[in-house]
# Entry
Amino acid sequence: MERIAESELVLNENGSVYHLNLLPENIADTIILVGDQGRVGKISQYFDVLEYSGQKREFLTHTGRIGSKRLSVLSTGIGTDNIDIVINELDALVNIDLDSRTARSETKSLNLIRLGTSGSLQEDLPVDSFLLSTHGIGFDGVLNYYAVSREIEDAELTDEFVRQMNWHEDFPRPYIVKGSEKLFDLLKDGTHHGMTATANGFYGPQGRQLRLKARVADLNERLMKFNYNGHRITNFEMETSALFGLGKALGHECATVCAIIANRFRKEYSKNHDLSVEQLIGFVVDRLT
# Structure
C-alpha cells in the first residue's frame, strides 16, 4: 500500500484528523450532519447516553446511543468547501490506517444524513414541509477537481440540465448525483421529494440581488421550469451536491432532508422555522432509530 504523506493527510499531535479533531473511535457508522453547531445539542438531547463530545473550529461532534443504536452528530458549517473537508476526513477515519498512513484493503461505508434548512423553488412545495433530495445538482465545481468517473453522475440528466438551462459558459460545469436509495427508502414516507440545487454562495449564486446584479437574473425561474422524465428541481441550498458526489465516489450512503423555511416564488418565510427544524429532528431521529 502506498503511504500517504504528512502534507496530504494532516494529523494533530494526538493522531486525530486535522480539522475535525476526531479519532476513529469517536464516530458512529451513522452520522447526522448539520450546518449550524447549535443544532448538534438539539439532536444529542435525544441520546440516552452521550459517549463523546469534542469541537474544533465550527466542527462540533457528539456521539452517543439511543437504545442500542449508536449515532454521531457533526456540524459542518456552511458550504461545499466545508463538506469537502468533512467527507474526506470522515472517510479517512474509517478507511485509512492513520498509524501507517495507508488505505485499508477493506473499506467501510458510513451512513451520512444531512439535516438542514432550504428554500423552495416550486410554488406547490409549502413552507414548513420536509424535502428529501433525490439528487444533488452541483453548481459548485468541487467534484470537478477529483479524478472520478462520470459514472457516479447521472450523465444524461446532467446533459439535459445544461441544455434546458442554457448554462452560462462562465459558470463551473454542473454535475448531478443521485442520493442513496437505501436512505431514501428509510426517509421517504412523510416527505416531499425532488432534486436539490446546490449553490456556492447565498446571494448571487442563488439569484439574489442586493447592490450587485446577478449574471443570470432569471436563474430561479429557469430552475423552476426544468423538467425531464418527471424530475424537477425543488429547492436551493449549499451542501448536498458535494455530499452526494464525494460520498458516492468514496462508497458512502448519503441523504439530505431539509425543512423548507421559505418559498422563493410565493415570497413566504416560515413564521417559526425553529419549530420546523425541531420537528424535522424528531422525524429523522425516529426513522434512524
